[in-house]
Task: inverse folding
């Protein structure tokens, strides 16, 4: 399954390369909402909140009322998750809050799972140069993806893995990583980072893996 991504920064829809360099920006929200309206799930990320540089919560709530979205970006606790679900989000993505300097924050994961249920809880696992990246991908912790999955699987209904090294590059997602991750969990697995063509999405689907795409969608390489 293809899951198109809407990334918000500074009140616009944007696409960044490796989470840093701005490559595309759009203001026509109605156009993209209409383009994505037929998808069973759309990913909606508040990049400003993830980077602790403000937020786009008002805009996020408007989109969540119009599209079936899983929402992420700077969400720190179960109360925030419940508020987003109340605004219309289908699921909530937790990332940095699930990690601390010494490893995986299973207390946070347990609290979120108890409050909203595992089926509405997506655990975000992002890697940069092979290490878990947190706080808008600005910092890293010494936890491997396999370790994170093992610790978080009892609490969440899905994993979202982002390969930051290829994010926004349209150079392709590393299929060996997808296979390794797929073997590590029975939960729904969604991957992102560099996906550029339908053949990749088909190959991932054959593994039982769903795909998030942004840059390839907005640049027209992937039809929506």
Result:
């Amino acid at each position: 399954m293809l899951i198109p991504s809407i990334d918000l920064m500074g009140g616009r829809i944007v696409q960044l390369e490796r989470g840093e360099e701005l490559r595309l920006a759009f203001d026509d929200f109605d156009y993209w909402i209409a383009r994505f309206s037929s998808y069973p799930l759309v990913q909606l990320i508040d990049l400003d909140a993830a980077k602790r540089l403000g937020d786009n919560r008002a805009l996020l709530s408007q989109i969540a009322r119009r599209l079936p979205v899983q929402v992420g970006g700077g969400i720190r606790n179960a109360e925030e998750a419940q508020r987003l679900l109340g605004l219309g989000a289908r699921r909530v993505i937790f990332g940095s809050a699930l990690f601390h300097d010494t490893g995986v924050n299973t207390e946070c994961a347990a609290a979120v799972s108890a409050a909203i249920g595992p089926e509405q809880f997506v655990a975000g696992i992002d890697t940069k140069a092979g290490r878990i990246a947190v706080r808008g991908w600005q910092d890293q912790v010494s936890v491997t993806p396999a370790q994170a999955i093992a610790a978080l699987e009892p609490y969440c209904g899905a994993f979202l893995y982002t390969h930051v090294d290829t994010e926004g590059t349209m150079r392709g997602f590393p299929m060996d990583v997808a296979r390794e991750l797929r073997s590590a969990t029975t939960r729904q697995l969604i991957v992102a980072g560099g996906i550029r063509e339908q053949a990749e999405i088909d190959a991932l689907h054959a593994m039982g893996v769903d795909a998030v795409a942004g840059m390839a969608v907005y640049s027209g390489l992937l039809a929506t």
Summary: The chain has one domain: 2-218. Residues 2-218 form a domain with the TIM Barrel fold (CATH 3.20.20.70). The CA atoms of residues 42 and 69 lie 5 Å apart.
